Amino acid sequence: MAPKPPGSVEELRAAGNQSFRNGQFAEAAKLYSRALRMLQAQGSLDPEKESVLFSNRAACHLKDGNCIDCIKDCTSALALVPFSMKPLLRRASAYEALEKYPLAYVDYVTVLQINNSVTSALEGSSRMTRALMDSFGSEWRLKLPSIPLVPISAQKRWECLPSENHKETAKSKSKETTTAKSRVPSAGDAERARVLKEEGNELVKKGNHKQAIEKYSESLWFSSMESATYSNRALCHLVLKQYKEAVKDCTEALRLDGKNVKAFYRRAQAYKALKDYKSSFADINSLLQIEPRNGPAQKLRQEVNRSLN
């Protein structure tokens, strides 16, 4: 007896997912299309569900090399649920395949505003930076369309997603760190890293700390050997109250340069905010052994000492 064909939106979507996993991308696209037609015929007011179906069908198009339809479906998905990471990443890949590098760059860095540890976005933005610099030189940023500012609500929506998404991000972050550390930068990459770091510094001066994090992250992709870039990114994390990330960056900065005074000071600040006063006090003491007359460090030590007593 033949198995019963899928008859509901959820069944069609599940069947599409299975076909996709089996590498049957054209069949999966047909199933997602049927699910979309059924959902729309029902007059559904569930934009999230409709957006996912468009995004899933876009993945099928991308696998089959149909970049134009991939872009259309991703754009439809994003119109329903703006700043969704999967359609942004899929559209960026399609733009990149079509050599529409400015548009791909915008989508990659938009993802990094939502979550700056997504490896595919970090790698993609770095590839696009390289391609754009090669094509347009130092004025490449003038060729970019405007980059949307991601609202806090979109970031919070990502934080509320199931734990599997966060596990995937943790894997991505580990891969990013391993890849960056294992690479010896060429002279060209070192120069690109320097330029991106300076752009990050300018953004910090203007108070644009989230965008500065993106620049420092791109810089570190090209060259992970700059202690100052890590400590600069740590400053941005401190301002944004991302204290654990600040600790991680300062630790990496100190691994590269054990006398980085700013890294000691910023890690001490982060530990203090996390109420880890012993670690904060230890960092301040290490700093003062290097610069005994550092006024801000002396003041911070007094504050931490009061919390310890």
Automatic annotation (TrEMBL):
Keywords noted in UniProt: Chaperone, Cytoplasm, Isopeptide bond, Membrane, Mitochondrion, Mitochondrion outer membrane, Phosphoprotein, Repeat, TPR repeat, Ubl conjugation
Location(s) in or outside the cell: Cytoplasm; Mitochondrion outer membrane
UniProt similarity note: Belongs to the Tom34 family.
Chief subcellular location: cytoplasm
Entries under PANTHER family matching the protein: MITOCHONDRIAL IMPORT RECEPTOR SUBUNIT TOM34, RNA (RNA) POLYMERASE II ASSOCIATED PROTEIN HOMOLOG
Top-level taxon: Eukaryota
Biological processes, Gene Ontology terms: protein targeting to mitochondrion
Protein's recorded name: Mitochondrial import receptor subunit TOM34
Coiled coil location: none
Ranges of compositional bias, category Basic and acidic residues: 163-178
Taxonomic source organism: Catagonus wagneri
Gene: TOMM34
GO terms under cellular component: cytosol; mitochondrial outer membrane
